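Re: that chain you flagged

S.,

Sorry for the slow reply, it's been a week of failed gels. I finally had a moment to sit down with the sequence you sent. For the record, here it is as I used it:
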Amino acid sequence: MSLMRRIPPLLPFLLCAGVMVSLQQLMRATGTQYCLTQLTMSLYYAIVVMGLCLLMGHAGQVSLGHGAFFAIGGYTSAVLTTHNFSAWGHSSLGGWLQQGRVLIAKEDVFGNAILTVSPWAAFLAAMLLTTLVALLIGYPALRLRGHYLAMATLGFGLIVSKLLVGSTLTGAADGINGVPSWPLAGGLTVTGKTAARVQNYYIACALVLLLLLVIPALVPLALRGVRFAPSSADGLLLRNLLRSRIGRALQAIHDRETAANAMGINTAAYKLKVFLLSAWLAALAGVFFTHFTGGIGPSEAGAFKSVRYVALAAAGGMANLWGVTVVSTALNYASLRGWFGSLDNAVFGILLILIITLAPQGPLKPLGAWLRRILGLRNLSEERLERS
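Prediction finished late last night. Pasting the structure tokens below so you have them in one place:
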């Protein structure tokens, strides 16, 4: 296969990486690198919308509870990394946990020695709790259809929000502050410190690009038992998944669930696994977001946040992974920067209406078609069709 045939599938990744670097350099040149804080937060919010892209755009299931999964991930990590477990220090279990680096010694804000759970162990605990909750909620809820499913997930989100506000363990209405930094590999650290602002921006960028790269591979792994044969560089993009047996099964569930059942597709299992994968993405974003900002509040689990995620997924093209990522990042950044002031919600709604009306498949769809015409690039699938 020639080089020109390998470039088109990789082109979106190269363009996206180039834009990310250019934005940071532009902010550096204009003395506005402080804006990277809001841009980093917007990238973490975009990861939640990416999960909804899979769930809504390709499986046809509407969830109004993904803000709750974001909060479950963030709050689990926040509670475990800030709570004092010194009472366990002299027990045999505490000794084992310290030897395994699950519990680590540090000082609190007053200089007192305390034992807390390490950020990596807290991250694993957050993902495990998210898995259990998603299974408990998803198993009965995903047997519902249409607005009944949306109402069930909305109720779940409201319950989580009220529990967070009413619990002293989670800081009640004030939330949790003082969440420590999260040391990653290679000397990288997820932290909100000013000196590490640029580093954390690129950590968020790398995480988003990595997910854009591996999500098409994660879905086949989650839906084991269905054959998936990636073909060369095409396997980097979501379209290879959607043209596989998995993609056709998800599309059948999206369009006609009853007919899909009649054809022998285990729709309940497919929906549950995709729901679980999307919940993982939301919790992952919540953990990174919490360690970056150094805290989390109950508003992250609010119904408005979940509705906003759904609206962003619709504005980005619902089934367009690149579209929902770009649109979500841009609109969340505008909101976090306060560009529209008190009219933020109104302007946000107007923009959503315009995007959905003028570009129902997302603004990147017509832009991508225009770029392909300008550059004279064609999809590999089109070339194969011509040869056949």
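What I noticed first: Residues 43 and 102 are 29 Å apart (CA to CA).

Talk soon,
D.
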